[in-house]
């Protein structure tokens, strides 16, 4: 019987990983391609990845694969050889290798079969996510930015677009990808003769979006290879002008990587020029919003006076207030609710 799941405790697995002396490399990759039997594919891949001491998160669906993994660096060549041979669609697949990572983020391999690798809400059975638009490399992106017959479409969320985007890119004002897809089709309906360039953070969303545009009769659809991350990396490496302005929002402590010096956003509390996201210090709120240094001091890291009052209460009192209140990562969205007098007038939404 092959081992298809781990039966050792999480704590023990983590301890084992930390005790490893061999360096690990963290990589991510995704590919849209048809997998006829996702479970069989998963079970076979699980065994092969385990043999190479791969840890991480892998999602497999009928539409493809999405993976964030780490492996002993000396297994990298063997891993590539394996991955490239699993299916012709994976041959020579671009792997994103994390450079500033210690390889210690994962200590177990979790490989799951899902309905989709990126939830899209599309019910049309004839939609083929592997029929995607054309990839654009960094220099091609720059050429397209100068082409008057080309429209750049940002497929990320509002709070991401707010702090950084390609010059003149169109925002699709919704907080969920599933809502954005039909919205993009609708918004661009009169521009079917134009070149449509879609982009997102790492490429996985815009690639599916490009397939959806093609599915809806758009002819000239492109997407930025590897997303903003890869574009910025390649443009710098090749000495090209970097035409992404502001910050690329990422969900880690930095809450964004600065790409250009321009600050294109504003503090949500006072309106000063600022593009630093933060989470409200009130545990019962945790709102994701933009706050300048001055307001951070004034509001003690909170999004509002209400939250500031709350964090000043004794911990037991705070907990009592939180009980029963809906919690979770909330984001401030100006695209739907106009900023009036502070943040209390805005409604909050959960991040999908
Ligand atoms: Zn401020
Ligand atoms: Zn708050």
UniProtKB/TrEMBL annotation:
GO biological processes: tRNA modification
Positions with biased composition (Polar residues): 342-352
Residue spans of biased composition, Basic and acidic residues class: 317-328
Record Gene3D superfamilies: 3.30.70.100, Rhodanese-like domain
Alphabetical UniProt keywords: Oxidoreductase, tRNA processing
Residue ranges constituting the Rhodanese domain according to the UniProt record: 146-240
Enzyme nomenclature, EC number: 1.14.-.-
KW tRNA processing (keyword) present: yes
UniProt xrefs under Pfam families: Rhodanese, Rhodanese_C, UPF0176_N
Catalytic activity, as annotated: uridine(34) in tRNA + AH2 + O2 = 5-hydroxyuridine(34) in tRNA + A + H2O
Function statement: Catalyzes oxygen-dependent 5-hydroxyuridine (ho5U) modification at position 34 in tRNAs, the first step in 5-carboxymethoxyuridine (cmo5U) biosynthesis. May be part of an alternate pathway, which is able to bypass cmo5U biogenesis in a subset of tRNAs under aerobic conditions.
Protein name: tRNA uridine(34) hydroxylase
Organism (species): Photorhabdus luminescens
């Amino acid at each position: 019987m092959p081992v298809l799941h781990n039966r050792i405790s999480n704590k023990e697995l983590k301890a084992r990983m930390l005790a490893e002396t061999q360096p690990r490399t963290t990589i991510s990759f995704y590919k849209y391609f048809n997998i006829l039997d996702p479970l069989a594919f998963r079970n076979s891949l699980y065994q092969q990845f385990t043999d190479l001491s791969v840890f991480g998160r892998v999602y497999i669906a009928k539409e493809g694969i999405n993976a964030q993994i780490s492996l002993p660096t000396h297994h990298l060549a063997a891993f590539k050889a394996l991955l490239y041979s699993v299916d012709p669609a994976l041959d020579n697949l671009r792997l994103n290798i994390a450079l500033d990572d210690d390889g210690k983020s994962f200590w177990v391999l979790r490989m799951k079969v899902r309905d989709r690798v990126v939830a899209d809400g599309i019910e049309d059975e004839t939609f083929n996510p592997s029929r995607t638009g054309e990839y654009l490399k960094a220099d091609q992106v720059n050429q397209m930015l100068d082409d008057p017959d080309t429209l750049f479409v940002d497929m990320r969320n509002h709070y991401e677009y707010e702090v950084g985007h390609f010059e003149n890119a169109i925002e699709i004002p919704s907080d969920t990808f599933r809502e954005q897809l039909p919205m993009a089709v609708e918004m661009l309906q009169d521009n079917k003769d134009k070149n449509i360039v879609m982009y997102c953070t790492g490429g996985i969303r815009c690639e599916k979006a490009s397939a959806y545009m093609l599915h809806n009769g758009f002819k000239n659809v492109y997407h930025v290879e590897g997303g903003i991350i890869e574009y910025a990396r390649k443009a710098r490496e090749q000495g090209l002008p970097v035409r992404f302005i502001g910050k690329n929002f990422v969900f880690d402590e930095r809450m964004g990587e600065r790409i250009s010096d321009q600050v294109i956003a504003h503090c949500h509390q006072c309106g000063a020029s600022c593009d630093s996201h933060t989470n409200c210090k009130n545990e019962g709120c945790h709102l994701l919003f933009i706050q300048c240094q001055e307001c951070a001091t004034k509001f003690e890291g909170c999004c509002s006076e209400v939250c500031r009052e709350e964090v000043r209460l004794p911990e037991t009192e705070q907990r009592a207030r939180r009980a029963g209140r809906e919690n979770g990562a909330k984001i401030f969205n100006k695209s739907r609710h106009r900023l009036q007098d502070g943040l209390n007038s805005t409604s909050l939404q959960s991040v999908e």
